[in-house]
């Protein structure tokens, strides 16, 4: 019996454990932190052995195969030991993909991947396909492979998940865009991070498809030096595209396999240039999957959006409060600020992942009237924008951030939580940060 050891007892770890057990592995789950009570129950019911708050060498280094949760860096001592012993260390995606014949759609990118994934899922489901949603989002992919029979999977894939693939091959891959993020995990080397994203296409063959942003410098740079076997389907909002998606005045046009789809962009449910690109990517997938044009149009116009991504919370005394807690990097905050049409009080800060705020400067000058710094260490933000905005305040709780913003904001302004940073200094995760923001707004 082969031994499968799983590092990390979260959603992806427990899902992999269930699938591993079903496939006849001797399974052991080890988490250096605490495992949540509900996951412990699942493991115990399924008679899967586990440990928490430690990694025991003798129980791990005898593995035939290790599945590592995406949050654990390659540099961690246990992973180093496994690599030294030449024990394969893979991601949940790699492990689960070999046990399903479903059509795979994989979506990655620095920003927009959750929205594009949700939108693609919405389009395919509305088109009547039997489709599962997973990866970096929702219920574990492995867990679904163990318990459901989906014909198609739409997976959101982070660079960390792609680092752990060997044979995973999506039939349709999407790269929404690439901008510097998580550089702390890639030796502060942007090229390493870019290569990591492009792993999504490394196993693709001639009959597969790669949908990508033709306007993106990092993507074009990669293509100037590398090739893919997949059929390339670019999208652009700045230039005409013959085989792919483009913008003609206010009309989105998609030409794929001599099939043309058009839609007036005024009817798109999601606002902003970046969401137009997300819609192009998702609609391109839908067209490849032969969803009816009318269904695509209808679904693009009724999509509800993603929680914590430019989510309008409330309007109080004619001030709009917007939750963009999912903006954990500079590029995401760029999109948020770019879509603002009124003077904005910007709540920003958290754990800095090697951010360069320079690209935000023109937008901050144009749109931001005040900055509320919400982080343990705000020095970089203060240094970057101290001379650019009139008001700069430091706070150390979400309630303070919201109350301070309310005092500063005037009728017709907006208050935008778009942190450009990770959340781990003051919050559990970006969802917790977003929920606290919404709660504080509702309590005003």
From TrEMBL:
Major enzyme class: ligase
EC number of this enzyme: 6.3.2.9
Annotated GO CC locations: cytoplasm
Domain Mur ligase central, residue spans: 107-286
Domain Mur ligase C-terminal per the UniProt entry, residue ranges: 308-421
GO BP: any one term: cell wall organization
Binding-site residues for ATP, renumbered to this chain: 109-115
Catalyzed reactions: UDP-N-acetyl-alpha-D-muramoyl-L-alanine + D-glutamate + ATP = UDP-N-acetyl-alpha-D-muramoyl-L-alanyl-D-glutamate + ADP + phosphate + H(+)
InterPro entries in the cross-refs: Mur-like_cat_sf (IPR036565), Mur_ligase_C (IPR004101), Mur_ligase_C_dom_sf (IPR036615), Mur_ligase_cen (IPR013221), MurD (IPR005762)
Keywords: ATP-binding, Cell cycle, Cell division, Cell shape, Cell wall biogenesis/degradation, Cytoplasm, Ligase, Nucleotide-binding, Peptidoglycan synthesis
Compartment(s) where it occurs, according to its Swiss-Prot or TrEMBL record: Cytoplasm
Membrane-spanning intervals of the chain: none
GO molecular function: ATP binding; UDP-N-acetylmuramoylalanine-D-glutamate ligase activity
Pathway membership, UniProt: Cell wall biogenesis; peptidoglycan biosynthesis
Coiled coil feature spans: none
One Pfam family recorded for the sequence: Mur_ligase_C
Family statement: Belongs to the MurCDEF family.
NCBIfam families found in the cross-reference section: murD (TIGR01087)
Summary of the function given for this chain in its UniProt record: Cell wall formation. Catalyzes the addition of glutamate to the nucleotide precursor UDP-N-acetylmuramoyl-L-alanine (UMA).
Record's protein name: UDP-N-acetylmuramoylalanine--D-glutamate ligase
Upper lineage: Bacteria, Pseudomonadati, Bacteroidota, Flavobacteriia, Flavobacteriales
Encoding gene per record: murD
């Amino acid at each position: 019996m082969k031994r499968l050891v799983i590092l990390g007892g979260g959603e992806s770890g427990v899902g992999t454990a269930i699938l591993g057990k079903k496939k006849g592995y001797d399974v052991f789950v080890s988490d250096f932190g605490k495992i949540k009570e509900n996951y412990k129950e699942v493991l115990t019911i399924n008679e899967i052995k586990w440990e928490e708050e430690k990694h025991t060498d003798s129980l791990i280094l005898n593995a035939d195969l290790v599945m590592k949760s995406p949050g654990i860096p390659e540099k961690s001592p246990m992973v180093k030991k496994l690599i030294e012993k030449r024990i394969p260390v893979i991601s949940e995606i790699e492990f689960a993909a070999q046990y399903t014949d479903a059509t795979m759609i994989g979506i990655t990118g620095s920003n927009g991947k959750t929205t594009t994934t949700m939108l693609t899922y919405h389009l395919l489901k509305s088109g009547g396909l039997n489709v599962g949603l997973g990866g970096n989002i929702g219920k574990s992919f492995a867990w679904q492979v163990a318990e459901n029979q989906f014909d198609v999977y739409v997976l959101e894939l982070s660079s960390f998940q792609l680092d752990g693939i060997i044979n995973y091959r999506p039939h349709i891959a999407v790269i929404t865009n690439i901008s510097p993020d998580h550089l702390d995990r890639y030796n502060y080397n942007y090229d390493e991070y870019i290569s990591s994203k492009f792993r999504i296409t490394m196993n693709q063959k001639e009959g597969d498809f790669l949908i990508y942003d033709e306007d993106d410098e990092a993507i074009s740079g990669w293509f100037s030096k590398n090739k893919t076997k997949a059929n390339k389907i670019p999208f652009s909002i700045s230039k005409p595209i013959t085989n792919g998606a483009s913008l003609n005045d206010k009309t989105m046009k998609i030409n794929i396999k001599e099939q043309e789809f058009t839609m007036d962009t005024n009817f798109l449910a999601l606002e902003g240039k970046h969401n137009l690109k997300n819609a192009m990517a998702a609609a391109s997938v839908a067209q490849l999957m032969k969803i009816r044009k009318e269904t695509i149009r209808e679904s693009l116009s009724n999509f509800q959006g993603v929680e914590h991504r430019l989510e309008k919370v409330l309007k109080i005394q004619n001030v709009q409060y917007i939750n963009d807690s999912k903006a954990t990097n500079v590029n995401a905050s760029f999109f948020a600020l770019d879509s603002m049409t009124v003077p904005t009080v910007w709540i920003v800060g958290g754990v800095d992942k090697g951010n360069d705020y320079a690209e935000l400067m023109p937008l901050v000058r144009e749109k931001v009237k005040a900055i509320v710094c919400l982080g343990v260490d705000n020095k970089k933000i203060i240094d970057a924008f101290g001379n650019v905005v009139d008001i700069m305040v430091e706070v150390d709780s979400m309630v303070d951030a919201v109350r301070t913003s309310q005092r500063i904001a005037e009728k017709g302004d907006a208050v935008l939580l778009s942190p450009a940073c990770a959340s781990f200094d003051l919050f559990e995760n970006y969802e917790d940060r977003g929920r606290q923001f919404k709660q504080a707004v509702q309590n005003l």
